[in-house]
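Entry for the shared binder. Reason: the reviewer on the internal report wants the predicted structure included alongside the sequence.
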Amino acid sequence: MKKLLLGSVLALGAMTAAANAATYQIDGLINISEYGFGSSLIHEQQANGDMSGAPVAYFSETVDAGGIWEHSGAISFSGMWNGYGYSAEGHLDQATAIGSITFNFAGGAQFDELTFNFEALDMGLPNSFDGSTAYLWGETGTCSATTDSSCYGTDLRISVSEVPLPASLLLMLGGLGTLAASRRKARLS
């Protein structure tokens, strides 16, 4: 009986862990202010890694259907930036929002590709995720002592919603748990 109870507790813990590492649909990029950290944009990065820089352009709030943030941390979405299309792919840890995203821009943009690194190290606002919005601030690399025109920063506010597990999967998991419990009980008898 103790083993059956322990198995149930472990199964419940595994289900809780799975729920905490969910898959999210990307709903859009938030833009709530013209300046500062409320909007999703790319900005010039000043010398010595200073976080303030002139905005280059803002991302459109709308992202294309199919944007996803997997429980593994893989993230991908696409949309418009400064009138040009972009696709974005990378990896972000869901607990800390630390990782990187590479943006590929359609021909005609002032750059073809930029990879932004996100980490909570002396960059002002820390990167975080509150369950509905990923708050990200990152840069393309360490800036030199003088202004480097190839060094950019980004501020992203990615709005997401959790993708529910299909009911059939929940039923299958429940059935497997019941089968395992009955097999243990049979062995104990």
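Summary line for the report: The chain has one domain: 23-188.
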